Amino acid sequence: MPVIRASAHKSTRRKCMEQEYQDITRPREVREEVKKLRKKFLRYQEAEVVYSISHRKLIELADRAGALYRMEGTVLINRDIFDAYLENFHEKTRGIGKRGLSKEERRRKEEKA
Q1: Which residue(s) pair with 41 in the sheet?
Q2: I need a labelling partner for 31 at 20 to 30 A (CA). Which of 12, 24, 72, 91 fits?
């Protein structure tokens, strides 16, 4: 970090401040950049980490989804196809948990307990 003396010229101080503090980009711009950098294909080892699924289950689900690409001993998973397939398993909230219940439902539940 550069040392700024009190006698330093204003423009010198301004340059140091500009180097030190970069503009903060808006969250939407950051999300768009992340999408660009996101890999389209994952090796199964990477997919196991990304999706937190065991090897056997991951290969089974990716095969059912039609997202597997096998080439000369290398297995790749198309992330877009696999994500779309996983959305089929999304469950709507069933009102379980403190935030899932209305005030009236929580009161009745507490009275029963």
Answers
A1: 78
A2: 91
Q: For 69, which DSSP code?
A: E
Neighbours of 3 (CB within 10 A): 6
Spatial separation of the C-alpha atoms in residues 39 and 50, rounded to whole Å? 11
Would you say the C-alpha torsion 38, 39, 44, 45 has a positive or negative sign? negative
* Amino acid, res. 44: Y
Q: Which of 2, 36, 45, 39 is nearest to 21 (CA)?
A: 2
Q: What is the pLDDT of residues 49-84, one digit of tens each?
A: 989 999 999 999 999 999 999 999 999 999 999 999
CA-to-CA distance for 9 and 1, rounded, in angstroms? 17
**Residues 69 and 75: beta-carbon distance below 8 Å:** yes
- The single residue listed with the structure tokens 């999706």 is 51
User: What whole-number distance in Å separates Cα of residue 63 and Cα of residue 81?
Assistant: 11
The answer to whether the CB of 60 falls within 8 A of the CB of 36 is no
